[in-house]
Structure formats: structure tokens, C-alpha cells
Amino acid sequence: MEVCWPCVLVWGSIITFVIIQIRRWLRAEGDLTLLWAEWRGKKPETELRGKVVWVTGASSGIGEELAFQLAKIGSLLALSARRENELERVKKKCIEVSSLSDKDILILPLDLTDRSSHEAATNTVLKHFGKIDVLVNNGGRSQRSLFVDTSIDVYSAIMELNYLGTISLTKFVLDHMLQRKQGKIVTMSSVMGIMGAPLATGYCASKHALQGFFNSLRPEVAEYPDISIINICPGPVQSQIIQNVFTEDISKVNKNVGDQSHKMATDRCVRLTLVSMANDLKEAWISDQPYLAVCYLWQYAPTWAWWLINRVGKTRIKNFKSGVDADVSYYKKSS
Ligand SMILES: NC(=O)c1ccc[n+]([C@@H]2O[C@H](COP(=O)([O-])OP(=O)(O)OC[C@H]3O[C@@H](n4cnc5c(N)ncnc54)[C@H](OP(=O)(O)O)[C@@H]3O)[C@@H](O)[C@H]2O)c1
């Protein structure tokens, strides 16, 4: 049989291209629109320099790193959380790593669950900077407990903080953005706002609520082309989140913190968040594999995704019940 060399060449090129793309996808840390934006899109350094950015939950984890990276870029910052001393620490480091001065960073202690304080807090930021270009709704807490063991007070507290606190602050800031006809509302949702997971029923519910809320708000403000509603959906990221989780009882502290080495580095998650902000992505998935693959599976083949989540979930619940950190022991077992 005669070999058709042009065909071999064409098929060889196609197969090589497909293999390269699969390899790229397997190493991806974000969804396709985000990867494209990082490669070809607008740069945070040009889009966010000089902008007034208000970050909630800025006293640790993702919010703290957001403050550092935004300071380096040259954004003017309002930093909020409950712990003022931690915010002062973050501010000091922001000034060290940037050319910002003391007045470029406003420390504004804020409890997201105290909704009566949100209007005054918004006015304080406006009085200081004269405008708010970006609100980053980042403050929040996760959960580690089974529904059957968990007090309803915990569910109420999670919704009050993650959902109602967030939309309450958004209401006051959005009013100002609508007057200016510009601004970005960036909300730290989660892959748990897209899919479900055991031991986090309340947390998943609160993040689904945020997704539903902002996805419905977006078309309501569509007549303002310069107002963006941006939902960020990270997978597991290194932070204080496990130390701070709600447990089955409102006053019980989580003692089972475990190792964070399998999680995405905080600075990488934040860099991709800034890319999403700069490019006005409506929704961005930021995660290492296998979580990213599960997001796609969830989107396109939910029944298969359920099969997988049930399998992994069984191990997580077993580990949790026997007192070992649910995620880490799963990773150690499977690696
Ligand atoms: N790390 C992850 O794996 C991951 C994945 C997906 C999504 N997220 C989301 O990312 C956001 C940041 O979490 P993180 O991982 O950086 O956790 P973290 O290190 O525990 O930070 C949480 C932040 O929220 C603040 N906060 C908690 N309760 C508050 C309240 N009542 N009022 C105002 N601020 C409050 C905390 O500050 P104070 O205690 O000083 O108030 C802290 O600054 C959360 O919305 C979380 O759901 C995290």
C-alpha cells in the first residue's frame, strides 16, 4: 500500500495540536476565557493603576494578598475586615512594597453582618477618596460540618455574612456607581457556588445564592456598559479559611486545620483575579486540576459529576468522622 505523505503530515499536525491543547488544559489554572484574557487581554497594571479599590476581608488570606498586589500596581485602597490590628499590619506591608503613601490606604474596620453600618462605611470611603471604582466583596467564612449535626443558627449566620452582608454593602456602593455610570463589583464566590460538596451545605448554599443574585443583577445594570458584575470562583486556595470555618455549633472553633500544600498558591489566585477584573470577565473559574475538570464536568455532564462527587464525598465524610482533615487525608491517600 502506498503511503500518502501529505495526509500523514496533516493528520500528524492535527494530532500534535490536539495533544498540546490537552496538555495545556491539564495544566490550566483557569477557565478558557480567563486563560485567553491572561494571554491576550488587558493588563491589571494598566487597568487598575490609580483606581480606588475597596477590599472586604482584607485582614488575611486572599484579601490580604489582593491588597499587596493592588498596592504594587498603584491602586488606592480601602481595606475592611473586623480586626483593625491585622488591617494595620496589611497596610504597613502594602506601603513597604509599593510607592503608596499613608493617605492612599484607608483602614476601615467593618463587620459585614452589621448591615446598619454599611451606608456610613460607604460614605467614609467616598469622603476619603471621592469615588469607588471597584468593590471587592471578599470577606466570608466557610463550613465544615454535616447537616444532620449542625444547628440552624449556623446556617443563619453563614447566610447573614456571606450572602446578606455582601449584597447589603453592594447596594450602597452600586448606588454610587450608577450615579457615575461606571464601576466594578467583584465578588469572591467559589467553585462551591457552581457545584455541591459534602460538609459544606450552608457554605455552598451561600455561594450559590451569591451566584444567583449577581447573575440576575448583571442584566439589570446592562444599560450601563461601564458597570461590570464579576464573579470569581476559586477552588481550594492557601489562606486562613479552614481555621475560620463554621462548625456544627456557632461557638465551636475548628481544630482540624491540616496541611495546605495541595491548594493553589494565594498569589497565583490573586493574580488571576486581577486579570479577571481588568478584563471584566463575567465569571472566572480559578483552580488547579482536578477541581477545574470537575467544573467542566459539572457544567456539561452533571450526572457523571454527581457520581464522582459522591465517591470523593464518601471518603471526605469518613475522614471527617474519624477526626482527620477531610481534604488532606484524601489527597495523601490518592497520591
Ligand atoms: N481559600 C479558599 O480555598 C477559597 C476558595 C474559594 C472561595 N474563597 C472565598 O474567598 C474569600 C476570602 O477567604 P480566604 O480564603 O482568604 O479566608 P480567610 O483567610 O479566612 O479570610 C477571610 C476574611 O474575611 C473576613 N471576615 C470574616 N468574617 C467577617 C465579618 N463578619 N465581617 C467582615 N469581614 C469578615 C476576615 O477578617 P476578620 O476576621 O478580621 O473580620 C478575613 O479577612 C471568602 O469569601 C471565601 O469564601 C476561598
UniProtKB/TrEMBL annotation:
PANTHER family per UniProt: DEHYDROGENASE/REDUCTASE SDR FAMILY MEMBER 7-RELATED, DEHYDROGENASE_REDUCTASE SDR FAMILY MEMBER 7
Gene3D superfamilies associated with the record: NAD(P)-binding Rossmann-like Domain
Protein name as catalogued: Dehydrogenase/reductase 7
Family indicated by similarity: Belongs to the short-chain dehydrogenases/reductases (SDR) family.
Any Pfam family matching the protein: adh_short
GO MF terms held by the record: all-trans-retinol dehydrogenase (NADP+) activity; carbonyl reductase (NADPH) activity
Record carries keyword Oxidoreductase: yes
Keyword Oxidoreductase part of the UniProt annotation: yes
Database matches in CDD domains: 11beta-HSD1_like_SDR_c
Keywords: Oxidoreductase
GO annotations of cellular component type: endoplasmic reticulum membrane
Top-rank lineage group of the source organism: Eukaryota
